[in-house]
Task: structure prediction
Amino acid sequence: MKPAKFGYFRPETAEEAVALLGAHAGAQDGAQDGARVLAGGQSLVPLLNRRLVRPRALVDVTRLPGLRGLAVTEDTLRIGALTRHADIETVTDPAVHTGFPILPESARWVAFPPIRSRGTFGGSIAHADPCSEWCLLAVLLDAQLIALGPAGTRVLDAAGFFTGRHRTALAPDELLVEVRFAHRPVLAALAEYSIRQRDYAVVAAAAAIRLDRWGAIAEARIALGGVADRPVRVPNAEKALLGAVAGAEAFEFAARVAAEDLEPPADVHGSAEYRRELASTLVARALRQAQAKGGPQA
Amino acid sequence: MTPDITAFDDVPMSITVTITVNGERHELVLDPRRSLADVLRRELRLLGTHQGCEQGVCGACTVLVDGDPVRGCLLLAVQADGARVETVESLGRDGELDELQRAFTENHGLQCGFCTPGFLMLATALLRDEPGADRERITECVSANLCRCTGYKGIVDSIDSAARSAARSTPRSAARSASHGR
Amino acid sequence: MTVLGKPVRRLEDRRLLLGRGRFHDDVSRPAQLWLRVIRSPVAHARIRGIDTAAALASPGVAGVYTAADFPVLPRIPVRQVVPGLDLDPYLQPVLATGFVRYVGDPVAVVLAEDPYLAEDAADLVGLDLRELPVTLDAREAAELPQESWGGRTPKAAVVEIGYGDVDRVFETAPRVVRVPLKVGRHGGTPLEPRGLVADYDEVTDRMTIWGATKVPHWNRRVLAQLLGIAEHRIHMTETDAGGGFGVRGELYPEDILVPYLCLRTRRAVKWSEDRTEHLLAANHSREQEHTIELAFDEEGHLLGLRDEVWQNNGGYIRTHGAAVGMLTATMMPGPYRLPAYRTRVHVVTTNKSPTGTYRAPGRYEVTFVREHALDIAAGELGMDPVDLRRRNLLDHRELPHTRPIVIYETPMVLDGKDYLEHFDKSLAAAGYRAWREEARAAREAGRLIGTGCAFFVEKAGLGPHDSAIVEVDTTGAVRVAMGGTNVGQGIETVMAQVVAEELDIAPEAVGVVLSDTDILPDGAGTWASRSTVVGGSAVQRAAEEVVGKARRVASDMLEVSPDDLRIENGTFVVAGVPGKRVTLAEIVRECFTARQLRNGEEPGLIGRGTFVVDVMTYPYGVHCAQVEIDPGTGGVRLLRYAIGYEIGRSLNPLIVDGQLQGGLAQGIGGALFEEFTYDASGKPLNTTLADYQWPRALDVPEAMITVFEDAPAPDNPLGVRGAGEGGTTGCGGAIANAVRDALGLKGSVLALPLTPERVKALLRDRGGKP
Result:
């Protein structure tokens, strides 16, 4: 289980990295893919080892300056693409914990510590696994994704960023450099289920709600992973919640509506039917947990 | 069919790196596709690091890179350029078992011993960060790696016992663990 | 000094903890070539052509070989022969010939200077395959002739075991329960994948092989015959092994390819299997479909049992032959009073990976099927499941009990003491009654909590023999060589304990050599929980012989009667006469003197022991489980677990406990998580450890393990019953019964493993609401 041959570049700057991606992007030598970005490598290297991906070159971006860290400025959380999962898990900045607690809380769902110590936030987003926690939260909170290309940076919306299983709207010569969360979720939670505890999720659900002062739901967002070729929102279920009193009845109704709208794919870890059932269970749980974040009065 | 990539003259196929392993600096010229685990085993003949899956799942190849536990099969050796790597061979001194290793033999924390180096490195990192880690925390931590022989009880017992005896020798550690914000 | 029965720390640990173990992949020979196997990507096909030209031209390649390169292409013979069955037509060739029969079937091999280059070249081998229809279900196509079997049907064998007029019993029995059940395909899958290194020495004209675990002497015998060389030209040496579990060390295609190519190229050849290969190519196990029927009278006395079993054997018959089928059919009656019985196992080849034995082979399956059927029967009879078992367990009045069954050509003599008493004691040790109360109360409060138990009978100590040599040298150093192998179980320590006990020395002072074919001419290997029972008994005999001779010589040296000598710390002392003593080293030196040789003694101090045994021993035990089911996900959480196990005598409680804890985790894997599945084209879906899911630490409960030594085994001098498998055996049964209880099912759980998806389906069928 050894990778096929590839060349290796370690550029000094993001611009240089983009130039290298561009230079090798078009090259399709037989079965070889063009150039691939190597960050933490925790998702890419398993694929390389099984020769499921055969790039002619890797562009190692791990040492590019200025792309690692989280900061909250003007109510926006910016996460550098090279921020490691463990950095998010252990962030001490109170602005992150008060404004965006769902991010550090969710980090513990991302694989295990030896993976979190190397894997990166941007790498996970760009890898676009349909059940990735970070992709799910990006979709839930309408994150903005900042891509650097030959012509400079552009901003992509999470809604259109994920185009399929392991596919994104990034051009072959673009590098994801930052992810911005401008939407401050008030009450948000992530619930997921894996066959073995703490393992790769079969289905994951994230919910964010805002309640008015009478306890009715004023705003609701629900995103699901593991139920399609990309993380998805369930607008009908979100609408069903608006105006309802937050509580088991509303949550379970929304969970049913969410499940009805899904056409999940089947794989070795779960059939379509089972995934739909899990989605319903987990949406209700995520909503309950989100509500509980507001304390007993909420 | 895969063409021979050596035909491409525009991609670097051989990289010079410096890696410090167990305190010793090594300058190596590497094919970039070689994993850190393979380079430790084959180039440096440090055979204590084992490979059970080469997919980052089993953790038998867990080593410490700049102090953090890392899957040796998922890190290209060229990515460890300039890094400080610790392997199982760094534990114990002059062939004497260290406290954690002793706890493993006292508590029957190993059977075939193939997963053991990975668990030792995982636990070494845990006990450095959280010397007073409790049993629940230890179980959660070792869930990162797979063992097929022991059913894990012996492994958890071993690390737990090492943590308890460390706590006895350094009373401050319990407080540190309690303040660890997870 | 008594060391038997003490939790002696393992001698293996130090090297393994320091990273100094010697596993097959750690062996590196000068100028070695790396072997890479090219495997079939499809489940069933005719081979139209294999193009090796590009691979041969690839950098660093020393050779590419297909079946055509073998003058005579051997098929791998059966090691565990079941008399009366001709399995030859279904044996696996070393490289696929004409057809491939499963994804992973070896088609060609590459030899290259480096493992990366070997894999590069393997990629370039072109296979021209014409796909054939696949058979994935044992039952469906059992009678349809197949082209790849030369027109034979894929059903390789039927194993039928029984006694009494069982059909008549079922015609007249007042109560009959019939339960169809499936056992999923799972396997031993040790953490270290397989591997082998062979090196040839021109000077001595001999080949050394590293990595053959389990049965090195048998493998050498077959290799010598296949390669046409004398056995003594092959030296199998000992290595550490990263887990065995029945799967590692059988004679697989690679175990012949590596030595063959070593001889052919006159270079060292090394093969290290990768994980995906392992999951395709090493033996799977367990996959069976049962229809069990139980006949009772109105009071719940068992009158008869019959079972029709379809065993999915995978692509070929391998070295185990029909052993799993045989074990299924012989072990099904278990611990119960059973007047009439029949099990028929249809062993059918399919286009999945070939199968073999895996820890508790046959017993894991039958314990699940029988014990689950008993719980269903209890429901139908209106009886408590514990009471139903108590009514039918053999007790002290009937044990030992001879069943009219022949197993491995030996009569089945159940050598236990009292199954009923053991059941009661095990349940009491677990506090099972309180678990049941707790579960009942929780169910009333709306939670899905249930309990279940399973009684199992294991088998161990398969003969017919094993041998050992204990020797003391002139420095007083002690070494034992025996025929077991190290698969991580702690055999080195236990054998050292047996010798240390006889010589009254510390176990650490005993050097242990396991299955080195140069040192021990014959050894029967490590499998079927036999090493301590049979091998340990041989070691004890050899050590006794050493002590006996040493005593004779010491009595001559000290001029005292042998009866006045006592061995203390490896020194013979004369009772009541301080200072009159002679050490083992002194005795050994004396053993080379002309005086002793004239006395008719052999030179040196060497004891040889062979232990021959006609019957097996049958340990027995009880598994108890308490589970909670999450109605939202179908997830099963193990809340409590207990094992009671009668093992006759525990030589090292630390190691016995470890065997049971570890066996339990594997049993849980098979009950809840692990299953090899395939798509409709026969493509395997579990090719990494992310998809083939062993339990992790968080998934295994802290089990309460109670080892009983109430019934020492009568037929071996150590009194041991074997402890390697009972941690696994009862798991499927106990967990299935607990899940059924939690869900309040009238019928069965249908199949193992009880994955969340299967449990969710059971919840749905039962009517949804918790």
Observations:
- The interface with chain A takes residues 115-116, 119-120, 123, 274-276, 632-635, 673, 677, 685-686, 688, 690-691, 693, 695-696, 698-699, 755-757, 760-761 of chain C (CB under 8 Å).
- The radius of gyration of chain C is 27 Å.
